[in-house]
Design a protein that fits this description.
Distance between the termini: 74 Å
Number of strands: 23
Structural class: alpha/beta
Strand content: 15-25%
Helix content: 25-40%
Number of helices: 15
CATH topology of the largest domain: Aldehyde Dehydrogenase, Chain A, domain 1
Largest sheet: 7 strands, mixed
Radius of gyration: 25 Å
Length: 497
């Protein structure tokens, strides 16, 4: 059994903590590696490496940083399949899905390649006699990222390329469930010419997380994960004087009006509800049907979901892979049990699915629950599995109110052919990312990703323009070069003249 070690100063650093945890292949159910779990001292070593590298990296000309990013972009584009294969082996999602994940991460690297333009400040000449004012953006120092299992390559690449382009150095704590992809990404960045210490990786559990949050040399922390942990990261990081960007969970609703294209809506519900086995923070987990839409939509969803090819992520033709761990599979099954006990009607049941030849895998079939109400646990909690709930309402206003009353506000969508209804939705809905006949409204890299309400803590969304603002601080300079005529001492309050 190989051990996945830390990455510090551009090399693999064996752990000294003596603690490890297994990494599984979800399709077989067998352990494929062990990953080291960092001690406080090992986190300190990574932070120290980043702190030592910061002065030189901060002073590296922005165009030289840009060239390294361009070189990194080329390596990722040519070797992205290696990262995708590692994602499939440790997370379980299909190879096509993993390649799409790498592509979305690559797009953030491409955005960061424009860093000379993105870091421009403002300049105002002659704000007072002989006085100019201008602003500059400067890096924070050592910053850290704590990332989830469901996107082991993309979410880290939402963070560290942006931070590093801005002149910071970075410490990444990826999920211990699938740490391999981030290690490959770091090795490729080093091959692109990134200096030692600029990007470091420590693997671990709560011990590593807490040390990052309290470490005095870490100036900012970016997090993506569940809402309870996002709140914890935001509160603990803020208590220790850090800038925090903590993205939490979701319960994404897709509203379907009676005038919608039902074939498009059914395709979209299946794609967004069962893609990556539902292990996406932007997955659709609730379909809110208005009026008689449910009776027309549900048969079309069932028809499509029954035809899904479920199997190992690297098997040709597989459309949905396993869940990440046996514990998570059992948790998802428990939610379906609870929904059935509370009165939901199980239209499609994915419990107990066994894939021939992979009997030990963590598979769970596409599941559809009808007649779900907002007081049921399957509605209240984030299930994070291939479970789609149908909630029926009589009127469009009821659908909007239902979405707005939900504590989460990550993503939502409306399906309709009525432009006025769509405009009403985008205006009134209290959710950060909105799709109109688009089920997964994930912004491209030149916009920012972030929800509302309990789906985010802190003032900044992730990547895009908000990424630049999060990883820099603004300095305003008021400048005057004295002329030969001195006007003497004046103790009055300075005003423009």
């Amino acid at each position: 059994m190989t051990t996945i070690d830390h990455w510090i100063d551009n090399r693999r650093r064996p752990s000294t903590s003596g603690r490890t945890t297994p990494v599984f292949n979800p399709a077989t159910g067998s352990a494929s590696a062990d990953v080291a779990l960092a001690s406080n001292e090992e986190v300190d070593t990574a932070v120290a490496a980043a702190k030592a590298a910061f002065p030189d990296w901060r002073d590296t000309p922005v165009v030289r940083r840009q060239r390294i990013l361009f070189a990194y972009r080329e390596i990722l584009a040519s070797r992205g399949s290696e990262i995708a294969a590692a994602i499939t082996a440790q997370h379980g999602k299909t190879l096509d899905d993993a390649e799409g994940e790498v592509q979305r991460g690559l797009e953030v690297v491409e955005f960061a390649c424009g860093i000379p333009e993105l870091l421009k400040g403002d300049y105002s000449e002659q704000v007072s006699t002989g006085v100019d004012t201008y602003s500059i953006r400067q890096p924070l120092g050592v910053v850290a990222g704590i990332t989830p299992f469901n996107f082991p390559a993309m979410v880290p690449m939402w963070m560290f390329p942006m931070a590093i382009a801005c002149g910071n150095t970075f410490v990444l704590k990826p999920s211990e469930k699938d740490p391999g992809p981030s290690m490959l990404a770091a090795e490729m960045f080093a091959a692109a010419g990134l200096p030692a210490g600029v990007l470091n990786i420590v693997h671990g559990d709560k011990v590593a997380v807490d040390r990052i949050l309290e470490h005095p040399d870490v100036k900012a922390v970016s997090f993506v994960g569940s809402t309870p942990i996002a709140r914890y990261v935001h509160e603990a990081g803020s208590r220790h004087g850090k800038r925090t960007q903590a993205l939490g969970g979701a319960k994404n609703h897709m509203v379907v009006l009676p005038d919608a294209d039902m074939d498009l809506a059914a395709d979209s519900a299946v794609n967004a509800g069962y893609g990556s086995a539902g292990e996406r923070c932007m997955a659709i987990s609730v379909v809110v049907t208005v009026g008689e839409a449910a009776d027309r939509l549900i048969p079309k969803i069932v028809e499509r979901a029954r035809e899904l090819r479920i199997g190992p992520g690297d098997a040709p033709g597989s459309e949905m892979g396993p869940l990440v761990t046996a514990e998570h599979r059992d948790r998802v099954a428990g939610y379906v049990d609870a929904g059935e006990n509370e009165g939901a009607r199980v239209v499609l049941d994915g419990r107990g699915l066994v894939v021939d030849g992979h009997e030990g895998g963590f598979f769970f079939g596409a599941t559809l629950l009808d007649d779900v109400t907002t007081d049921m646990v399957v509605y209240r909690d984030e299930i994070f599995g291939p479970v789609l709930s149908i909630v029926r309402v009589d009127h469009y206003e009821d659908a909007i109110r239902l979405v707005n009353e939900n504590p989460w506000g990550n993503g939502t969508a409306v399906f309709t052919n009525d432009g006025g209804a769509a405009r009403k939705f985008q205006n009134e809905i209290q959710v950060g990312m909105v799709g109109i006949n688009v089920p997964i409204p994930v912004p491209l890299s030149f916009y920012s990703f972030g929800g509302w309400k309990d789906s985010i803590f802190g003032d900044h969304a992730i990547y895009g323009p908000d990424g630049i603002r999060f990883y820099t601080k603004t300095k305003t300079v008021i400048s005057r070069w004295p002329d030969p005529i001195h006007r003497g001492v004046d103790l009055g309050f300075p005003v423009s003249r």
